Structures are given as structure tokens and as C-alpha cells.
Amino acid sequence: MSMSFERYMLDMVQPMRDDLTRLGIEELRTPEDVEAKLPDAKGTALVVVNSVCGCAAGQCRPGVAQALEHDITPDHLYTVFAGQDKEATAKAREYFAPYPPSSPSIALLKDGELVHFIERHQIENRSAADIAADLTSAFDRFCR
């Protein structure tokens, strides 16, 4: 029995994708998807750069889930998957300047402009609750 590496990776990362899509976060899988959503997203947009790493599983995705339980949340919810949807991730990262590529990471944009960014180094040594608190503070500030 033989399985392609690509099929194996798709199967392996699907649960990691599902962690976010089950929250109502829309996947942007291609550069065209990114360009169709981010430039014209009126109001606020959360963009989660998902990853297969342990800090994405243990802190980032759970922190995002907790933050989305807050009374105030962004108007739009998106995710790209670093290492899987490479071109879409690269296109999304164009909106995160001046920050260098980082995965996982979390961006909050308002009318297409970056207003808050959480880099990997701000995720990997913090708890999901700390990340949720950081996000809800940003939601309170920018999503009203």
C-alpha cells in the first residue's frame, strides 16, 4: 500500500485545520483567496497563521478559541496554514509588515491595516489564557 507524501500531510494536518474552522474561521488556501478577502475586509479581521508545531496546538489555537468566546470579536475570521498553503501564507504575510514571517502568529487588521500582531515568540512561552487575554484586549480596543 502506497500513499503520497502530499496525501499523508493533508490527512495529518486536517485535525489542526479543523481546530480553527470549527470555530467559524474561514480558511484562505490560495493567494487569490487572500486577495479576495483581506484588502476589502471592512471593519476588523483576525488572521491566524496556523502551524503544525506544538505551540500552535498547545497555546495558539486554544488561545484563539478562548478569545472568540469574548463579547467583542472581529468582523471577519480567517486562517492560512504555514508550510501547507505556502503561497496563501506568503500573500497574507504581505499584510503583516513590518513583522518577519512567523508561525504560528495572529494578526488583527482594521480596514486592511495591521493594528495588532502576536509573533511566535509571544506564543511559545505563554499560556492559551495569556494569548486569549492579549487578543481580547485588542478586540476591546479595535473591534468596537
From TrEMBL:
Membership in a protein family: Belongs to the bacilliredoxin family.
Stated name of the protein: Putative YphP/YqiW family bacilliredoxin
Give the source's domain of life in one word. Answer: Bacteria
- Entries under InterPro entries matching the protein: BrxB/BrxA
Q: Which Gene3D superfamilies match?
A: 6.10.250.2150, Glutaredoxin
Organism, per UniProt? Paenibacillus methanolicus
